[in-house]
Structures are given as structure tokens and as C-alpha cells.
Write a structure and sequence with these properties.
The protein is of the alpha/beta class. The chain contains nine helices and 13 strands. It has a seven-stranded mixed β-sheet, with helices on both faces. Strands 2-3 form a two-stranded antiparallel sheet. Strands 7-13 form a two-stranded antiparallel sheet.
Length: 251
């Protein structure tokens, strides 16, 4: 099983933090977020790890990773970056991670052992996390609904009540070669310009509408998503208070 990190975009919402480095190199508790991701993937038993790079990709570590290039990072979205690693995805089962999330090894183990050709993880304790990040959690929360079989029905909409949010998508997926074939076949039905701008959430909804099963797996526990400088402050505070699997850095 391989790991793949999607890290081509700039992460402009982090402001000055990404003026001279990719978003995944933003430091959290004394280490770049990329280092925490790699540590978790390696500790879960995933050793071959690729990274799709773009913005300031030349500044990333030169060893320990297999790089895929998104030379069009400024004009494309995550699904295009995913396609840049098609040579891996069509051959081996791959755990795919966004580069602006941090999670313990146990979470990587859960997604890697889940059954299904296309699997996404969701956090069951999302509300507590969102309450720390936002004055009104529903300003940013998205719909996440699955059926009794654990198959995704809806994702990414604007919820009007709590029943529409059974969890929050974490930015972690697992795709088998057969799952990637289904995704590739679906993408072939779309205009290239549309694929360029396609994010993963809209891809998942499109797959659902096409009758392709998206399996879900629950994760209970810590997980950080760093979209902006406020998120970074919230994470650092939780770590400093000892409310994290990440140890507080020595002062």
C-alpha cells in the first residue's frame, strides 16, 4: 500500500506563512505539518509515499519521497493533482492525504484497513473541533450523510440542521486500482476545463450521482485541519494545553 500527499496549492489563506514555502511546510508544534503527516503514515505501516507538488515545490525535502509534478498548480484544483499521480493509483492501493491536515498514526491505520474500492474517513467529534475554530460552527460545516450500509449519500452541501452532519470529511481517502479505474472512467465523461477546477468533494458527489459506491469509515478522536492562521493558533493552543497526541514543544 502506498501513501500520497496532495500538496500542490499555495494555501493563500495562511497569508505570510506561505510566502516562501508550500503550505505543508507551515510549522506546527515545532515541526512542519508535512513531518507530522509522514510520521503518522510511516507509523501506520505505509512506507512508500508520494507527494504531488507545485507551488515552490523545489523547497520540499529532497529525500524520502517520490514526487509527482503539477506544473499547472495555479490554475487547477485537487482532482487534477490526483490525476498527476495516476501511474501510482492505477497499480497499487493508495491512502491519499491532504497536506493541511494532521492526525495520529491510528487514524491512518483505520483508513488503510477499511474495506471498499473508494473509502473516505469522517470525524465523529467534528462539532467540538468546529466550535474551537469558528464562532458559529455551521458557517463552515458541510453536509455529510451516509446510509445504513455506510455508503455516502451526500457531502459538501450547506446544512440547515444537525441531522445533516453525521460527521465531517477529514481529507483522507483510500483508493484501490479498481476504484481509480471507476474514477478515471467518470472523469473521462467531463470536459477537461471542468476537471481542472474540480475539488474532491464535488468529485465524490459526481461519483455518487453516477451510481459509484463511496464507503465511509468513522474516526473518533483528534485531527487538525489548518486552513488559516486562526486554525494554526487553535491547534497550537490545544497542544500547549496538553489536549493533543502531539507533545508540546520544549520552551
Amino acid at each position: 500500500m502506498n501513501g500520497l500527499i496532495l500538496a500542490a496549492g499555495r494555501g493563500s489563506r495562511l497569508g505570510a506563512q506561505t510566502s516562501d514555502k508550500p503550505k505543508c511546510m507551515t510549522r506546527l508544534a515545532g515541526k512542519p505539518m508535512l513531518a507530522w503527516i509522514l510520521e503518522s503514515l510511516h507509523s501506520s505501516g505505509i512506507h512508500d509515499i508520494g507527494l504531488v507538488r507545485g507551488y515552490l515545490g523545489h523547497t520540499l525535502p529532497s529525500e524520502g519521497l517520490i514526487y509527482f509534478e503539477n506544473t499547472r498548480w495555479a490554475e487547477t484544483n485537487m482532482v487534477y493533482s490526483l490525476c498527476c499521480a495516476s501511474s501510482w493509483l492505477e497499480k497499487d492501493t493508495t491512502v491519499i492525504s491532504y497536506s493541511d491536515i494532521v492526525y495520529p498514526a491510528a487514524t491512518a491505520k483505520i483508513i488503510s484497513s477499511a474495506q471498499g474500492d473508494i473509502v473516505i474517513s469522517y470525524n465523529t467529534e467534528w462539532l467540538e473541533i468546529w466550535q474551537a475554530r469558528f464562532d458559529n460552527p455551521f458557517d463552515d460545516a458541510e453536509t455529510f450523510i451516509f446510509n445504513e450500509e455506510g455508503l455516502l449519500i451526500e457531502i459538501g452541501g450547506k446544512p440547515t440542521h444537525l441531522d445533516q452532519v453525521q460527521g465531517q470529511y477529514m481529507g483522507l481517502l483510500k483508493i484501490t486500482p479498481e476504484g481509480w479505474r471507476k474514477i478515471s472512467d467518470y472523469l473521462q465523461t467531463l470536459e477537461p476545463a471542468f476537471v481542472d477546477k474540480l475539488d474532491v468533494t464535488r468529485l465524490l458527489n459526481g461519483l455518487i450521482a453516477s451510481g459509484i459506491h463511496i464507503h465511509t469509515v468513522a474516526v473518533k478522536g483528534e485531527w487538525y485541519e489548518v486552513d488559516n492562521e486562526n486554525d494554526l493558533r487553535v491547534c497550537e493552543q490545544l497542544i500547549d494545553e496538553g489536549k493533543s497526541w502531539i507533545p508540546a514543544p520544549a520552551k
